[in-house]
Design a protein that fits this description.
Oligomer: single chain
CATH architecture: Up-down Bundle
Number of helices: 5
CATH topology: Zinc Finger, Delta Prime, domain 3
Shape: elongated
Distance between the termini: 19 Å
Strand content: under 5%
Structural class: mainly alpha
CATH class: Mainly Alpha
Length: about 90
Amino acid sequence: MLGAMTWMYRKLIEASEVKGVTNGWQAARALGMRPEQAELALQNARKISKSRLLDGLRALQKADDRLKRGGEDSRAVMEFLVTELTSQMA
């Protein structure tokens, strides 16, 4: 699950950097995704600032590190991550 979330954040960051794309096919080529997914990524990337996406990616990395280290309740780590990703500060 964490890997999928990280992948999506990376694609959103890539989408935020894509310029001159006018349709899903061009977006798909630029992002290496299916056209429908690429179109959604472009739409969502326009709604979220790049700094917020980068903060989210850092939060995902911290959660991944905490889970790999072990010794912490994985559910608590994931709940904290969701809180970070959905807060106004993220």
